[in-house]
Write a structure and sequence with these properties.
Helix content is about 45%, strand content about 20%. With about 350 residues, it is of the alpha+beta class.
Amino acid sequence: MAALPACIDRLLTTAVSLSADEPLEVALARLLDELVALEPDGAAALELEGGLLLRRGSVGAPPRDDHFFPDLPRELSLPLPGAVRGRLAFAAPSFTAATHASYERGLSQAAAIFALCLQNRPDGHGADRAAESLAQLDKLARLGQNASAIVHELNNPLTAILAYSDYLTQRLRRGGVGEADLDRMLRIHESAVRIQEFCRDLNDYARPSAESVERVDLGQVLDRALRFCVHGLRAADIAVERSYQPDLHVLGVESSLTQVFVNLITNAWHAMADRGGVLRISTSALGDRAVIVIADDGPGILEANIHRIFDRYFTTKPRDGGVGLGLSIVRQIVAEHGGAIGAANGDEGGAVFSIELPRSI
């Protein structure tokens, strides 16, 4: 049995190493074998438009009634994203390596990797940027894995900056230096503190979630998500207005909730990238529920799309702007926390996303 993040990592490694000269079925079988290792007696299948069907692992009886593995009680299957027409499936006697929802997210990532591999082959759909995209996925995966080492390397000089700037600030105060010079030294120290906080946030966010549920302060999680997005918001001339109800908590996985808010804030930033505006974030209590509202000054959501934006692979971005998994994953995470999410257009324009989560009192 292999952990889900480790399996996706190996799948990426294998995908990047594939040669265009390798026979199609051999290459796909190598990728499927990485999925098979997820569970004891696991099985994986890939079906492509045109009749190609590959099944690996504990395959059992032939496919029947839309099930690739009728002998296995737990089965998930998802369509491949983008131009490639096909389905990817994983099945096992039981899911022990992760929750059902986590498997859905993992299989979505795997489906995107399979699609990129197929697009990059001369006998596939020939997307010019597929190899580049796959390599970029691998680079981001490596970056996440090495976040703790990166933070460690930053913390060593940062600790010295904090210590010496604090020492010099105290000396300057006692020496009666001018206020302007003292203010400059204080800014150095405060900037170093901000870097240290960001490093801690990055390390926590990149660390694979153990799915441990704890009491989470919503304001703190939202502020952490904002820190991850602050550069893009500033570059797009977007102001942030926050209105948090004090001492509002929920029970949840902090890194997963951070992922939800980073995704929604990033979408708002992209919507306002060409025009600037205001991003409004508020939290409030409604009985036994905590309500989070994220509203932007962007163009809003087309009425025809409002009921589709949480669908897997639905996207309004350009072809190279994403595969439409972000809001689908957001909805899954919110549902895992016993909550609900909705989208609408504001009275004065812009998109409004509302999330309700059970309160922890």
